[in-house]
TrEMBL record:
Transmembrane region(s): 18-39, 51-84, 96-116, 137-159, 179-207, 219-240, 246-266
SUPFAM superfamilies on file: ABC transporter involved in vitamin B12 uptake, BtuC
Entries under InterPro entries matching the protein: ABC_BtuC-like, ABC_TroCD
Organism the protein comes from: Ornithinibacillus massiliensis
Name this protein carries in UniProt: Metal ABC transporter permease
UniProt similarity note: Belongs to the ABC-3 integral membrane protein family.
Compartments reported by the entry: Cell membrane; Membrane
Length: 280
């Protein structure tokens, strides 16, 4: 299986593009996902990943690159959710549900208007094997930009993630770093559409980070491990999906889930087997 993939990898340019793109997405999604789960914002990641759908549809209708509309609508959704939560008695989960469902419904309608069912399938479930050179290099560029931003603002994001009240006491603008994270989350979600689609993006953000959390209490170590797990899941999923001619995005997500399941039983934090021995 691996031998056939390696042989084709050196022969087919599209497979090289898929490898680089999937790996880059896995790495950057793993890094950003750490802040998402520490802030308890898993639902926000799911909402934004689905909210980009109407933006993609609008881009198709206007004849512009899908990234333009997807990022714009993703940011709009995050701002709407935050505004509703901060300026009403509606709780955050309800605001997310209202915005998420509305944007998703709008996206499906606009895709129907564009008469592009094939594009809708690729948007929902991804098609990393169809990535072109421009998209590949754009993804790699986004990887470096996002990682650089995370390094520069690591301490403020760390403090505002663990204790927002203390951050406010220090005079930090908590909302500023919240919106910064929302921008990064939106950009990563849009980029990840190429590999796993809007339906499964949240898994790329949450699962590697959750797995890494089982092994360490340090955020820096967690980010490194999560990025490694995200990249590894992407590579393994790509190999399996290409070799057996099945959906690559789904293979990536399932690989990540299997790594989490194994880690759940083996990690020092869980000590599942040790607890069973003690009880026995």
């Amino acid at each position: 299986m691996l031998g056939n993939f390696i042989h084709d990898f050196f022969d087919y340019h599209f497979l090289q593009n898929a490898f680089v793109t999937a790996t880059a997405i896995g790495i950057v999604a793993g890094a950003v996902g750490c802040f998402i789960i520490l802030r308890g914002m898993s639902l926000m990641g799911d909402a934004i990943s689905h909210a980009v759908l109407p933006g993609v549809a609008i881009s198709f209708l206007l004849g512009v690159n899908y990234l333009v509309g997807a990022i714009a609508l993703g940011l709009l959704a995050s701002f709407i959710i935050t505004y509703i939560s901060n300026n009403s008695k509606i709780k955050n989960d309800a605001a997310i549900g209202i915005t998420f469902s509305s944007f998703l419904a709008l996206g499906v309608i606009l895709i129907g208007v564009a008469n592009s069912s094939t594009d809708l399938f690729h948007i929902l479930f991804g098609n990393v094997l169809a990535v072109q050179d421009f998209d590949k290099w754009l993804t790699v560029s986004i990887l470096f930009i996002v990682l650089i931003i995370l390094v520069i603002f690591f301490k403020p994001l760390l403090i505002t993630s663990f204790d927002p009240n203390m951050a406010k006491a220090f005079g930090m603008n908590v909302n500023r770093y919240h919106y910064l994270l929302m921008i990064l989350l939106t950009v990563v979600s849009v980029t990840a559409m190429q590999s796993v689609g809007t339906i499964l993006i949240v898994s790329m953000l949450i699962t590697p980070a959750s797995t890494a959390y089982l092994f360490t209490n340090r955020l820096s170590s967690m980010m490194i491990l999560s990025s490694i797990l995200g990249g590894a899941s992407s590579i393994i999923g790509l190999v399996i999906g290409y070799t057996f001619n099945i959906a690559v995005g789904s293979c990536i997500v399932l690989t990540s889930a299997i790594l989490f399941a194994v880690s759940f039983f083996l990690s020092p934090k869980q000590n599942v087997f040790r607890k069973r021995v003690v009880r026995a």
